[in-house]
Amino acid sequence: EQMGKDAKDKELNIDVVCFNAVLNAWGWSSEPDKARRANDIYQKMLKLYKSRENIDAKPDLITLNSLLNACAFSRADSEKKSKEVVDIAIEAYELYQSEAPLYGIPNHLTYGTMLMIFNKLLP
After folding, report:
1. The pTM is what?
2. How much of the chain, in percent, has pLDDT values that exceed 70?
3. What is the secondary structure of 28-69 as a DSSP string?
4. Rounded to whole angstroms, what are the CA distances from 1 to 82, 100, 102, 120?
5. Is 70:94 a contact under the CB 8 Å cutoff?
């Protein structure tokens, strides 16, 4: 979060590679709220790209797979939390499917991670 603010102050544009590195770090962290935090970064990327404020922040397939990884390895301690994580994953996946090939086309990693999310988080 601070990364984007500092970059704006210095008139630097954070590109998709930097955003993806941060998303990936959230995915492998032990933070209990990592899916939501990763989704916040993903939403910021979409906003920056769609507004043309930073076209280098355009999400790609690595972005989607990193976000889904954060969802798949989230610890959901309640049904409400599980639903929130599954909703994040479905919303992101559906955007990629509907906008393909703009952000990339889901691949075998995407499908496998979605299955892992459903297996782990759905009752």
Report:
1. 0.89
2. 91
3. HS--TTHHHHHHHHHHHHHHHHHTTS-GGG---HHHHHHHHH
4. 25, 28, 25, 29
5. no
